[in-house]
Design brief:
With about 500 residues, this protein is mainly α. About 45% of the residues lie in helices and about 5% in strands. It contains 20 helices and ten strands. It has helices at about 5-10, 40-55, 60-70, 85-90, 95-125, 130-160, 190-205, 220-235, 240-250, 270-275, 300-305, 320-325, 330-335, 360-365, 380-390, 400-410, 425-440, 445-450, 465-470, 485-490; strands spanning about 75, 170-175, 185-190, 285, 315-320, 335-340, 350-355, 375-380, 455-460, 470-475. The strands form five sheets. A two-stranded antiparallel sheet has the order 1-5. A hairpin with a 7-residue loop joins β6 (about 335-340) and β7. α2 runs antiparallel to α5, α2 runs parallel beside α6 (about 130-160) and α7 runs antiparallel to α8 (about 220-235).
């Protein structure tokens, strides 16, 4: 499966205008003169799709950190820069620029995917090289995977949790399948929206071959499509499908869990190396950064170490309850957190998030601190998905769930610790805590709480910002669902219905 180097490294700017994201605004439209008639054209369009995924509004920034900041995992500190301040305080308006940027960036990539899918048949009809035809078929599978990923994130952020009993009557997302033809700006049902994602994944799975799966992939493989399918099935309460797809990944010889008990080098275990160098047998799909092609700095708001390169000035610090959730033998604590004396005048000293301190190769090459390659899918998540699905079966399989959790924890705990047993009385609490410990600040917590119909309560901690530190959020609060951007509701011809949080 040969690809040109430019396919991996080229980067296109992603722009989002103030008009409707569903229109062909500058970032989503194909530049004048650009067409897709040849193999090379198709390759360049796919390059643009992957480049768009690097946007700091998405996985290398807002879309990853905002859900966890909004939930119960961090506290804003006194004198913070107010970045994501309204998100943390649950004062989210339909004009919030961060919410708008996520919405716009996702639909921008969807528009690029639609442009490719509109034109690929013509390209393939004219292509005579067999190898190129095989590659084009593979590229099409990748594009379907990317589009499914973007729609799945829109569903997580802008829609209620999926309930099979009510999904047909709940609002989903605006589904766009065309690029050059106008389509109604109207939200489909939640049921139809999820069905669309599943259909895209099935299209992808028909075209992608597991023989080409590899760890550290920076493009969408068959394994990536299957990992997304497992995640979506979990959100849909399709427990057996979630189990089936998670099992495909767990049984795939291309991947294995990063072992925190085994040294990779004199300075790193396999677990710490995954975060320090963005490389691991565990990574199913990540966005590849170079010194000339990269996205946002995931670690910025947790360190702000570039203010003077002497001290840290975090906007957000880990919640004490999160730090307390790690036992002394849990190796993730040392991989994720390090205690710093900050540069603030109050002398705040706290265990800060170093998970996103930055790729050491990028740091040594270009002083790119706090730039970590977003890991879209890791094998660890699949163990957590399967364990939760096992517990939700009509006849729960707590033994299998316990085995999955123990397998994951055996790679994360020292001294042979980590074995755990779940049953009817503790499985949800146990899996909830394990997902926090494993997936901290990877963008899952808000959707998890929404899926479980759970609320939370904050109580002030040392030097935390007064506004927002005492906050109680009830289960199913409408603000778990982000508001549809106002400009989307007011765009000419729009029939887009608002969320409750728009009111």
């Amino acid at each position: 499966m040969l690809r040109s180097i430019k396919y991996y490294l080229a980067a296109l700017a992603l722009m989002a205008g103030p008009t409707s994201c569903l229109e062909k605004v500058p970032g989503s439209s194909i530049p004048e003169g650009e067409a897709m008639h040849t193999y090379s054209d198709a390759e360049q369009v796919v390059t643009g799709i992957y480049a768009g995924l690097k946007s700091s509004a998405l996985f290398s920034g807002s879309l990853t950190v905002m859900p966890d900041i909004q939930a119960d995992l961090v506290y804003a500190v006194e004198n913070f820069t107010n970045v994501y301040g309204s998100i943390w305080q649950w004062d989210i308006l339909s004009t919030d620029s961060d919410v708008e940027s996520v919405y716009a960036a996702l639909y921008t990539i969807i528009a690029r995917c639609n442009f490719y899918l509109e034109n690929i048949d013509e390209v393939m009809a004219q292509e005579t090289d067999v190898a190129n035809l095989d590659n084009l078929d593979m590229y099409t599978g990748e594009v379907y995977t990317v589009r499914a990923l973007c729609y799945s994130k829109l569903l997580e952020c802008f829609c209620k949790a999926y309930d099979p009993a009510t999904a047909e009557n709940e609002l989903g997302v605006v589904i766009r399948t065309k690029y050059s033809e106008p389509e109604p700006m109207r939200r489909a049902s939640l049921k139809d929206s999820y069905a669309f994602v599943i259909d895209d994944l099935e299209q992808a799975e028909e075209r992608l071959d597991n023989d080409y799966d590899q760890y550290n992939s920076i493009y969408a493989t068959a394994a990536a499509a299957q990992a997304l399918h497992a995640r979506v099935a979990l959100n849909m309460q399709d427990w057996q499908t979630a189990i089936d797809y998670a099992t495909m990944l767990i049984d795939n010889d291309a991947f294995e869990l990063a072992d925190g008990t085994v040294s990779y080098s004199s300075t790193d275990t396999y677990l710490t190396y995954m975060w320090n160098y963005d490389s691991s047998f565990e990574i199913i799909w990540e966005l590849g950064f170079t010194t000339t092609s990269y996205g946002g700095a995931l670690g910025q708001v947790f360190l702000n170490a570039d203010r003077d390169y002497m001290y840290t000035y975090p906007d957000y610090v880990p919640a004490q309850w999160v730090l307390d959730a790690y036992s002394d033998s849990d190796l993730r604590y040392g991989a994720y957190f390090y205690t710093y004396i900050t540069g603030y005048a109050n002398g705040l000293t706290w265990p800060l998030l170093i998970k996103y301190f930055g790729n050491r190769n990028l740091i040594s090459a270009a002083n790119m601190y706090m730039y970590s390659m977003p890991k879209l899918f890791r094998l660890a998540e699949q163990y957590l998905i399967r364990a939760e699905a096992y517990c939700n079966l009509p006849t729960p399989n707590y033994t299998a769930a316990s085995k999955d959790l123990t397998t994951l924890r055996s790679k994360r705990y020292s001294g042979g610790a980590g074995a755990i047993t779940v049953g009817s009385g503790n499985w949800l609490e146990t899996i909830s805590e394990e997902r926090v410990r494993e997936l901290y600040m990877e963008g899952f917590r808000l959707n998890d709480l929404k899926r479980w119909h759970m609320g939370f309560e904050r109580t002030p901690q040392t030097n935390s910002l007064y506004e927002g530190s005492s906050l109680k959020i009830e289960a199913d609060d409408p603000r778990f669902v982000w508001p549809i951007p106002r400009h989307e509701l007011e765009a000419p011809g729009s029939e887009v219905e608002p969320n409750e949080s728009n009111n």
